[in-house]
Amino acid sequence: MSKLDVQYRVLGAIGTNVYFLINKETHEGIVVDPADNAQYIADQFRLRGYTMKAILLTHGHFDHFYGASELRELTGAPVYAYKDEAQVLADTYYNRSAVWAEPRTLKPDHLFDDGEECELAGLKFRVLHTPGHTVGSCCFYFEDEDVLIAGDTLFFESYGRTDLGTGSSAAIMRSLRDVLFKLPPETVVYPGHGDFTSIEHELEYNPAAP
Fold first, then answer.
1. Fewer CB in 10 Å around end: N or C, the chain?
2. Contact 39, 7 (CB under 8 A)
3. Contact 42/74 with Cβ under 8 angstroms?
4. What pLDDT is stored for residue 1 in this prediction?
């Protein structure tokens, strides 16, 4: 029986899917990509009796981390990101905050390695390095739950743009075809923007599918 409850809120200037990954047994949880409005996110956890154990970032664009620093201060939850993304988070041009919003940087508390097996809030997942949208983009694969948190690498019948700093069209094609499209077809995909999907659906309808 699944113990993962995936909830989401659409927040921030570009309509980012902010995920609440809740352990139904313990009411501990993880927030993925806190786009904005840290106080609201913290209040949502508090009002529902959840304890925030970690803040995960799929990548370092401002619309995915803008509320992370304040949320860390409000809750004490550490911030995790992929090791190659530290340079993006530290640079206001690369993270786009200098272009779209008030310039902001962020230093994560922990940096992931590719393939790293983790357990946070009692939930087990594997870190998949999926460069292309940015150099350190990653996805979080909850194999026991058939769930992929995909960030801006894979969307419903589409995939992430590659024309921003550290992006690469060749790299995102490798990430999709060599990593994500090889996951079990029943895997449910929760992207950084827009509708949810599945690997099975994307293998049939995504223009990047092999």
1. N
2. no
3. yes
4. 78
Topology, domain 4-205: Metallo-beta-lactamase; Chain A (3.60.15)
Hey, what are 179's tokens? 């990593």
DSSP states of 146-191? TEEEEETTEETTEE----STT--HHHHHHHHHHTGGGS-TT-EEEE
Question: What tokens were used for 108?
Answer: 């994560």
Q: What letter represents residue 75's amino acid?
A: T
- Provide CB contacts within 8 A for 208, sequence distance 6+: 159, 172, 173, 176, 177, 181
**Sheet with 110-112, side-by-side order of all strands:** 4-11, 16-23, 28-32, 51-56, 79-82, 110-112
Q: Are 88 and 166 in contact (CB under 8 A)?
A: yes
56: DSSP letter: E
Which residues are 18's β-sheet partners?
9
Span 34-55, mean pLDDT? 97
pLDDT per position as a tens digit, 46-83: 999 999 999 999 999 999 999 999 999 999 999 999 99
Q: What is the mean pLDDT of residues 190-196?
A: 98
- Dihedral angle sign, alpha carbons of residues 61, 39, 82, 92: positive
